[in-house]
Amino acid sequence: MTELKIEKNLSNEIDFASFENNEIEITGMIQNLRVLSWGAFLILRTPVYTIQTVIDKNNINIQPESLKTESTLKIKGIVKKAVIKDKAINQRDFEIQISNICVISAPSVETLPVDTTKKELNINLNTKFDMRPLTLRHPRERAIFKIAAVICNEFAGYLTSINFTRISSPKIVKSGAEGGANIFELDYFKTKAYLAQSPQFYKQMMVGIFGKVFEIGPVFRAEKHDTSRHLNEYISLDFEMGFINSFYDIIQVETNVLNSIFSKINKTCSNEIDLLEIKIPEITKIICIKFDEVHQIIFDEFKKDYRTEKDLDPEEERLICEYAKNKWDTEFVFVTHYPAEKRPFYAKEDPDEPSRTLSFDLLFRGIEITTGGQRLHQYDEYINKMNKLGMNTQLFESYLQCFKFGMPPHGGLGLGLERLTSCICGLANVKEASLFPRDINRLEP
After folding, report:
1. What is the pLDDT of residue 337?
2. What domains, with CATH codes, occur in the chain?
3. SS3 category, 237
4. Cβ neighbours of residue 243 under 8 Å, at least 6 residues apart?
5. Which residues, 6 or more positions from 244, have their beta carbon under 8 angstroms from its beta carbon?
6. Angstrom distance (rounded) from CA 285 to CA 288
7. Predicted pLDDT of residue 287
8. CA-to-CA distance for 122 and 129, rounded, in angstroms?
9. Is the pTM here over 0.90, yes or no?
10. Nearest residue to 102 via CA among 77, 79, 78
11. What's the Cα-to-Cα distance from 105 to each of 73, 74, 394, rounded to whole Å?
12. For residue 273, which of 73, 87, 154, 304 sits 20 to 30 Å off, Cα-Cα?
C-alpha cells in the first residue's frame, strides 16, 4: 500500500521575480532553438509560459547542436532580468541562463514535416489540418485557442454568476430540433437515431426545472457546404431563460455576457492579443434592425435588391455591418423579426405581424454569430403550429410533455464558438478556429 501526500498547490505559475539571480528547475518542450557560435537561444514551452533560455557552450553538459525542436527537457539555470521583444514569448521580463539540460524525450523523425519555429506557418489549410497535432503547437495557433478557451470559461462564469444552471443534454436524439435534411442519421441498436443539431428541446425542458440554463457542447449539421463560414461539427454556446417579458430580455443577457467575455480576454490574453495583432471589441450600444428594414437599407444605400428574399444573403450581412459601423459606430447588429417560414416551428410569431417571428440574429464583423428568440410556450400553440406545418406530433411526444405540464414564457439563443473566435481573431476561415475541423471533406485527424 502506498499513501501519497495531498498536494494542495498544483498550479504551474511561477513568480520569476522571486527567483531572480537564483536557480530554478523547469520542464518543457523546445519551441525554437537558434544555435550560434557561442551557444544558443532556446525557447522553452511550458503549460503556462514560453520562456527564453540562454545556453553557453562552455558551461553546459549537452551541446545545443544535438537538441531537436519539440524535444521535452528538464532544465536548471539562473533566472536573470531581461527585455524581450519577441511577441511569441509570453514571459518577456526574465530569461534563464541554463547550467544543466536533461533530455526526457525527442521526436522520432529526423525532420519535422512543418517548421513551427517560423513567425508564420505559411502553409495551406489542408496541410495545416492534416498535421494538426504539430501545427497547433505554433504560437499563433495556440493563441487562437487560448482565446477560445477564455470565451467558453467566461460564458459559463458570467451566466453562473447571474443564476443560470449548467446542463449537459444528449447528443444522440430521436428527432431533430431544427427539422430539414441537414441531420446526421445513425443506426442506434436497430433503431433510427440522429446526431443532435441543437440542445434546443432539452434546454427548453430544463427551463421548467431551473428557470435559466446554459450548455456548452458540440452540435452537428449535415449541410453540404464547403465554404469559409461553415463546419459540420461545431461548439455551440447555448442558454435558455424563462419568465421573460420579450425576446429583448435575451438580447440584454447576450450583450452582457459578450462584454464580460471581451473584458476577460483583454485582462488575461494580452500576450495573445499582441501576437495576433487584434483589437477586442466592446458592445457600447444595442442596435436592433428589423429583417425587412435591412433589405430596404441594402437596397437604398448599396443598390442591391434582396427585398423578395426570405433570408439574409451573406453579402447583406457584410453590408449591414459596414453600414452600422459607419452610421452608429458599432460592430454588432441585432437583426430581428425574421420570416416565420425561415425559422423553426418553436419560434413565436409576432402577434402584430404573424408572418414574422420574435427572433433575431446577431451579426458581428459581417457574419452571423448568434441565432435566438422567444419560443412558443403553450401546449395548444405547439399542436396548432405543428399541424399547420404538416408535422407528426407523435414523433415529438417526449418534447411536448413539458408544455403539457406548464411552461413560462421563455427564449434563448445559440452562439457559435468558432465563428465568434474567428471574428475576434481576424481569421479568413472559420475552420481555423476549430481544433480538429469537420467538414464535408475531412474526418481526420
Report:
1. 97
2. 16-105 (2.40.50.140), 139-433 (3.30.930.10)
3. strand
4. 211, 408, 409, 410
5. 250, 374, 409, 410, 411
6. 10
7. 97
8. 13
9. yes
10. 77
11. 7, 10, 59
12. 73
